[in-house]
Design a protein that fits this description.
Layout lengths: L2 H12 L1 H6 L2 E6 L2 E7 L13 H17 L6 E12 L7 E11 L4 E9 L5 E13 L1
Antiparallel strand pairs: 1-2, 2-4, 3-6, 4-5, 5-6
């Protein structure tokens, strides 16, 4: 397991909300993180689809950890803004969010996230996330 996977997994373990939703780190490298979430009955909306709030939280987590991979040791990131488009429903058993850092600056980190149904290349959600580097 690489240093980025260790760092991201440690962060996920510290977040009670990520634990509650069942987030799993699939891959992590500098500037890119993949996190997944399995569908469960308690995460669905009234028509049986994964709730959009869960998809948003999954994308935000992937974005924050992707940003973390480009920051120096001892720094973290706080999200200050994101915009998400929910383009299609999560209908498979697992949602997968792929986050890539677009720009790392001294004051802001901008990350693009795409979420998919597991096994599909069709984008289910698209997020642009902005975070501010902070000291841990």
């Amino acid at each position: 397991m690489n240093e980025w996977m260790n760092r991201v997994e440690a962060g996920i373990r510290k977040q009670s909300f990520a634990q509650l939703l069942g987030f799993q780190v699939e891959d992590a490298e500098e500037g890119r993180v993949v996190i997944s979430c399995r569908k469960r009955p308690d995460l669905l909306q009234q028509t049986g689809l994964l709730h959009g709030g869960v998809t948003g939280a999954l994308c935000e987590a992937a974005a924050g950890y992707a940003a973390l991979t480009v920051l120096p040791e001892g720094q973290s990131v706080i999200g200050v803004e994101y915009k998400i488009n929910l383009l299609r429903a999560i209908t498979e058993e697992k949602a997968v969010a792929v986050a890539k850092v677009l720009k790392q600056g001294r004051q802001l980190v901008v990350v693009e996230v795409e979420a998919f149904n597991e096994g599909s290349d069709k984008i289910a959600a698209k997020m642009i996330f902005t975070g501010v580097p902070t000291q841990e």
